[in-house]
Amino acid sequence: MSQPETSMTSVEVDSRVGRAEDPHRQPWLKIMGWSSPFVVATVSVLLLRWTSSPRWLISFPGLLTIAFAVTSAITDSIWRKIPNWLTYPAGLTGVVVSSAVTWGGVSDFWGQLGIGESALGMLTCFVCMILAYRASGGGAGDVKLATAYGALLGWQQGLSIIILAYMIAGIALLFIQLATDHPWMLPAALIRWFGSTLLPQWVGSPSESQQKLLARPVPLGGAFAVGLLAVLNGFNLFGS
Predict the structure, then answer these.
(1) Binning pLDDT at 50, 70 and 90, where does residue 198 land?
(2) pLDDT of 20
């Protein structure tokens, strides 16, 4: 007995073709993403042997964090995407490196972040970003991005980067909005949103145009990278 034929609508076909042709989905990029920890580890070994640079910066997790920040900023700026081939290897490597520290000891290569700190960093950053994701409707890639930072850096630096990144993104959006024909629309929308959230009986919800402005996607990869730079220069909000 023959099986009934299934057909796809033109929309479904176009959607599948579009996903297949997305630049960030190219197989060679996935291969590079998953092999990058091994490349970074090799570079770290060579730098630790031949240079006297700050030890954390040229350690395996240090170099990987910097490479991760730069690459995520580029992909989010160009494609408005933070792909899985970037966040998954970074987060997984953070767990492996911290496990090596816990059971093998602190070293110049592995750094000094233990598995407990890494796991707490992942959990803290994930919870904070999933709440922000639910509230603002941002991208799931931002959640994975923050979780990977938490795995590599722990909760103090990871949470500091999240807070700084949102501050940086907010300031950038404010300046962009000030350059438009409706410069005070964003501040007014934020005030209405906070007011309606805290005092819904007295303050009305943002208008439809204000809601569209607040729901506008913001590429956070670059803001996270600037937040990392700030933390590395002493702006850790929760510790030294």
Answers:
(1) confident
(2) 46
Secondary structure, 3-state, the chain: CCCCCCCCCHHHHHHHHHHHHCHHHCHHHHHHHHHHHHHHHHHHHHHHHHCCCCCCCCCHHHHHHHHHHHHHHHHHHHHCCCCHHHHHHHHHHHHHHHHHHHHHCCECCCECCCHHHHHHHHHHHHHHHHHHHHHHCCCHHHHHHHHHHHHHHCHHHHHHHHHHHHHHHHHHHHHHHHCCCCCCHHHHHHHHHHHHHHCCCCCCCCCHHHHHHHCCCCCCHHHHHHHHHHHHCCCCCCCC
- First-to-last alpha carbon distance for the chain, in angstroms, is 71
For the stretch 155-184, pLDDT in tens is 999 999 999 998 888 888 777 777 776 767
Task: List Cβ neighbours of 87 (8 Å cut-off, separation of 6 or more).
Answer: 72, 141, 144, 145, 147, 148
